[in-house]
Amino acid sequence: MTYTQLPDDALPTDLQDALERHDLRGAQRLLGQRPPHVIADELARMHAVDAVVAFRLLDKDEAIRVFEELEPVDQQAILMGLRDVAFRELVGELDPDDRVRMLREAPAKVVQRVLAGLGAHERQVTAALLGYPEGSVGRYMTPEVVVLDQRSTVQQALEIVRAKGAGAETIYTLPVVDAGRRLTGVVELRELVLSPLGRDVRDLVVPDAPRAHAADSAEHAARLMRETNTLDLPVVDSEERLVGLLTIDDAVEVIEEADTEDVARQSGSAPWSGHYMAATVWQVARYRVVWLLLLLLAATLTVTVTQAFESTLEKVTQLAMFIPMLIGTGGNAGAQAATTAVRALAVGEIRSSDLPAIIWRECRVGVVLGTMLAVLGVALGTAFVGARIALVVGVALVLVCGWAATVGGTMPLLAKRLHIDPAVVSAPMVTTLVDATGLVIYFLTARAVLGV
User: In terms of C-beta density within 10 A (0-12 exposed, 13-18 middle, 19 or more buried), how is residue 34 classed?
Assistant: First the structure.
């Protein structure tokens, strides 16, 4: 299909206006001028009723393509607005893994309606995928796979691909199994096509190709595909029997979901699904308020520390001038280290066993950073309050930055050892902790240098 390219901001306003004027012909014409992923984005921005009206203006094939581009929460909203016939046609056309992706967090009534609208085979396949643990690769894999017998020839294998390829989600990677359906390796379609017809498939098999078990983490499987440059990853059960493939498009979605969740947690917000522009003010606030309340309570440590050193402040009031600078710098240094550690953990660059090395590395990095900043801190302190206070500020900057980087770099690894999501204890939590402990370091340094 050829699409007429409109300006990026043309469809939202014109489509919404057309729907508000009940100009369905005009809305249908506008929908025909945009590719599926753009239409899906605009439907996600709309109120559920308007989105359903616009979706029903699409022809069947286009509707399937647009529906596959939607996030699960938006797919559920569309489905709830469709009549039974359209509902059954839509869910029946979806690939099993896409269907399961939609149902992962769906209300029970949506799941029941979807399963009831499927044929016996499709219902069985969907129920089987839903039976795997939440977050496992079994929930994301496709069971619609062209499987080759290792005893066949290239000619026989190509005949199988032609006969069954149309019903499979992918044919670029072809799993090869033995008589017991145990995975022996994979063959790329390119190798099969370019090989002599009489050659045995077993001669083309890559036996050490990466694989995942169905109960493994989907995120780990997806990152394994990225590390090994694999288009499709075979998935096996506990007895090494082939059960499906994780395709590259599903792997990208898994990584995107994981990264989105990490970003939300690193910013001190609960992860949520759905389009930002379609969310109400109350929904956005509800996802953020819990973490803000927790951080507010944690921030009371700073007040407690200030009260504990009240006598020191009374004797040298100039110390108060540099408190915001010190705790802000320490918090930023800790947040930088925490973000770096979370990212390195996610992509497999560091492991929990690297904790001692990370402590030593981040401590030195923090001291180097603190020394660089101390030069400016001493200069400012000398200009405003004299050399003695400036010396306190400089020493405190070195100590606080060293401590903050160490805490920020190690807390995500400690969290992983305790089976806690490392992103949960990243930037906001580290910043709050460093604020309180940084003040302790500052006032203890002042007492030691100034003798108060």
Answer: buried
Helix (H, G, I), strand (E, B) or coil at 106: coil
- Give the angle 121-125-126 at the CA atoms, nearest 5°: 115
Give me the amino acid identity at 312.
Answer: T
Name residues whose C-beta falls within 8 Å of residue 55's C-beta, 6 or more positions apart in sequence: 43, 63, 66, 67, 78, 81
| pTM of the complete model | 0.63
Query: Which of 140, 96, 142 is CA-nearest to residue 118?
Result: 96
Cα–Cα dist 429/354, whole Å? 22
170/286 same-domain check = no
Residue at a domain's end among 227, 262, 297: 262
Q: Using CA atoms, how far apart are residues 301 and 432, in angstroms rounded to an integer?
A: 9
> Is residue 374 included in any domain, yes or no?
yes
Going by C-alpha positions, the residue among 250, 53, 60, 58 that lies closest to residue 142 is 250
What is the rounded CA–CA span in Å between residue 52 and residue 129? Answer: 28
The 10s digit of each residue's pLDDT in 98-152 is 888 777 767 777 777 777 777 788 888 888 888 888 889 999 999 989 999 999 9
Nearest CA to 305 out of 291, 292, 319 is that of: 319
Based on the structure, what is the number of domains in the chain? 3
Q: What is the pLDDT of residues 275-298, one digit of tens each?
A: 666 666 777 677 667 667 766 776
User: Could you tell me where the beta strands, DSSP code E, fall in 315-406?
Assistant: none
437 within some domain: yes
What type of residue sits at position 316? V
Same structural domain, 420 and 338: yes
